[in-house]
Amino acid sequence: MHGSLSLRPALALGASLADQAYQLIKDDLFSFRLLPGERFTETDLAARLGVSRTPVRLGLARLEREGFVLASPRSGWQARPFDFERFEALYDLRIVLELAAVERLCARERADETDLLMALRDIWHAPPQQRLLDGRRVAELDEAFHCALVEAAGNPEMAQVHRDVTEKIRIVRRLDFTKDFRIDATYEEHGAILGAVLARQADDAARLLRAHIGTSRAEVSKITLRMLHEARGG
Predict the structure, then answer these.
(1) Rounded CA gap, 186 and 15, in Å?
(2) What does pLDDT average to over the chain?
(3) What SS3 class is residue 2?
(4) Structural domain span for residue 117
(5) Residues near 184 by Cβ (< 8 Å), separated by ≥ 6?
(6) Running DSSP on this structure, what letter comes out for residue 12?
(7) Looking at the DSSP assignment, which residues form a beta bridge with residue 69?
């Protein structure tokens, strides 16, 4: 196992040991402390967490269902190898869903405004001095922005599929917020997209949304390649 893996026995009140094992392992996967393709055992993880193998096994089973780890009968577990083609396909699906949501929103009457869109306006139209600077928090708000756009469109099945896609690409998507200039750009781009939606300018909203996702997609691909190279000692 990669030497920098840092599963910590930080026990949270009210959370089961299996939930904590799940979250700690997932954090290390998302931070590339556990590298794509790397093999590991339940015994090693249990020792690091200071718990029995049972909660570790339950946490890993949940991560396997979500597609983040693979089970191997003879060699324990493996962090899912990084597959750029899979992420490209997921980004394509994300764009289709969000463009469809924006089209629906722009086709509505202005009186049919939603609390979700108003809440987004309060965040993304805030003046520069009120913007957040913490990359992790902005990454969470970024996800919430895009999920809220789809949810506001009013199709719960579409929203659920979009949430599933969001979860699958989170491992690379949040890397977009490790650069200060991308945090500033996200505020500007989200504000412009939301402004076009609220003005019912469907063509502008679609163009801005496509450009925003495309820029983020290119940036995270570059960062991911660099991080993998550095983590492997390249």
Answers:
(1) 33
(2) 85
(3) coil
(4) 84-231
(5) 131
(6) P
(7) 79
Q: Are 169 and 113 in contact (CB under 8 A)?
A: no
Asked if 94 and 165 touch (Cβ cutoff 8 Å), the reply is yes
Nearest to 187 by CA among 224, 157, 145: 145
**Does 167 share its domain with 145?**
yes
Does residue 134 share a domain with residue 43? Answer: no
141 in the same domain as 67 = no
Percentage helix, strand, coil for the chain under 3-state DSSP, each rounded to 5:
70, 5, 25
**What residues contact 93, with CB distance under 8 A and at least 6 apart?**
161, 165
Q: Which of 149, 172, 148, 147 is nearest to 29 (CA)?
A: 172
Q: Is 40 helix (H, G, I), strand (E, B) or coil?
A: strand
Global model pTM greater than 0.85: no
Cβ neighbours for 146, distance < 8 A, ≥ 6 positions apart: 94, 98, 162, 166
Q: What is the CA radius of gyration of the chain?
A: 20
Same domain, 98 and 190: yes
How are strands ordered across the β-sheet holding 39-40? 39-40, 76-79, 69-72
Tokens of 148: 């809220």
Burial class (CB in 10 A: 0-12, 13-18, 19+), 74: exposed
State phi, psi for 159 to the nearest 5 degrees: -65, -40
Q: Domain check: are 167 and 218 in the same one?
A: yes
Residue 191 amino acid letter? G
Give tens-digit pLDDT for 143-187. Answer: 999 999 999 999 999 999 999 999 888 878 877 787 788 899 999
pLDDT at site 68:
87
